[in-house]
Amino acid sequence: MQTTILLILFFFVLPLAVGDDLRVGFYSSSCPRAEMIVHQVVERNFIQDGSITAALLRMHFHDCFVRGCDASILIDSKKGNQSEKESVANRTVRGFNLIDEIKKVLENACLATVSCADIIALATRDSVALAGGPSYNVPTGRRDGLVSSINEVKLPTPEISVSDAFKIFNSKGMTMEEMVTLLGAHTVGITHCSFIESRIKNESFSMDGDLRNKLFEVCGIKERDPTVVLDQKTPFVFDNEFYNEILLRRGVLSIDQNLALDSISKEVVTSLAANGVSFREKFVGAVVKMGKIDVLTGNEGEIRKNCRVFNS
């Protein structure tokens, strides 16, 4: 894969203040270089591995949809407590070492100042821009949570129906359009063959024949669990091609393909497929809104010194 991508960046500027708790530029006085440090570390890693964008987007989503955006997904298990990481849904989540690297640099620059929850949100933003997506302002001021339990992880599965997925998104305050827009992040997504094995083998599931044959060949390697990209056309570029692919029945995951087939979501898919600029704008609104789900602020939670371990 080429290590350089021609980036055409669109800047969507949000108001300086977002509510009373989170705000753009939260660290401007307490740690002025915080966002620059995050960007530099993410950029260095992105040059080595362009798939880090998909990893961070998934981490951000999996974190926010459990206890809220509190970095509870980063906690390691210990005796007496299995953390969120141990759940089946999170076993293939990647990017933890990158968060550790960012945290280490930030702690050297500004001791116990920048939360792990904000690091996830900022790193995700920067990785999206590096993959050719929009650059946008992230309101910060999140605090880190004090609980991480495997028993609380109830995330949408790749086989979930559109209506059931929407129930989960709607319970977090997200609209159908925002759900379809956020799932558009699969334009840079990757999945393991084990998640799509039944979909490939069962020809009753809607899928383009050429894609099925390609996936069957790749996933036929039994000694390991290969990965496949979710966007067959531009897999490492953050664009709206994902929607065009699923309209052609080239969705790899069941939930992705069903977005283009189900009447409650197809209109949104068609609209986003036809307008790349609109997708970028709507994605910014949706991902920023997601990043505010059940956040801890003020004196709530803590600022972890090590993102994998509670301070206490």
Automatic annotation (TrEMBL):
GO terms for biological process: hydrogen peroxide catabolic process; response to oxidative stress. Keywords: Calcium, Disulfide bond, Heme, Hydrogen peroxide, Iron, Metal-binding, Oxidoreductase, Peroxidase, Secreted, Signal. The record marks R58 as: Transition state stabilizer. It is found in: Secreted. The keyword Protein transport does not apply. GO terms for cellular component: extracellular region. Its EC number is 1.11.1.7. Binds 2 calcium ions per subunit. Binds 1 heme b (iron(II)-protoporphyrin IX) group per subunit. Belongs to the peroxidase family. Classical plant (class III) peroxidase subfamily. This is Peroxidase. It comes from Trifolium pratense (Red clover).
